[in-house]
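TL;DR need structure tokens for one chain.
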Amino acid sequence: MYKVISNDKLGPNVHRLVVSAPRVAKARRAGQFVIVRKEEGAERIPLTIGDADPQAGTITLFIQAVGAGTKRIVATPAGESLRDVAGPLGLPTHLEKWGNVACIGGGVGTAVLYPLAKALAEEGNKVYTVIGARSAEQVILADELAEFSEKVFIATEDGSEGRKGLVTVVLEEMLSGDLPRPDAVFAVGPVPMMAAVAEMTRLRQGFGGQARQAAIPTIVSLNAIMIDGTGMCGGCRVTVGGETKFTCVDGPEFDAHQVDFDGLRNRLGMYREQEAAALKECKLAKQLDEIEEAE
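>> reply
TL;DR here they are.
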């Protein structure tokens, strides 16, 4: 059992859990994840390790409660425990001194981006962080990311905070020279966002007689369907560079210019009906519990 030390709500449906997991905290490296189960027989949920404190023996998990499994996990109050926290899993982030690095997070992808951006800054890179959200109330971790970023740019779809539009608005300013041009880009978020970033950083044709701009190395962290996390089930397979890879053991980070985003999008939508049914059942169970408590 893994005790929940604290459970804070960062925004709509987004929680930060600090969990006691001494062995994971000691072994964890940036970019790796754990698989969490709330209870025996529950759904296995892959979650990026947002941070770790080896001395305290704790790890930090940022969780967006959108499905039945994640809703049950974030409903665990401080003092209670999670049944399983297996990890660390996956390959750690490849770190090197790129120079200027753009770290782009869309929605709850910002939480996954946090350990990557922190590790890149500690490696000596100048990190320029871009946070995307639908509105100001859904912007998360801006202050925390600012602690080690040269600058944090915020883009909201409704314009309620920062620039109005998507994260690509800020990236375009970087590529055009209006903002510091990145030597590498790391992006985490919805599949359409990552695909758009990858397309923007490919080899670009120059205009008006200008020379073509070389492709910028771009890394994405993929959140594929996952069951065992050891490469045995094949559920998290993704096509990269024309070859089949397994997100859990070959990733979760891949060269964005090699990822088949269309295939990834299709696979992520395979179990929408089942997830909707599970979520409906979860809501019904909660309503029944409330009725019993009232009686």
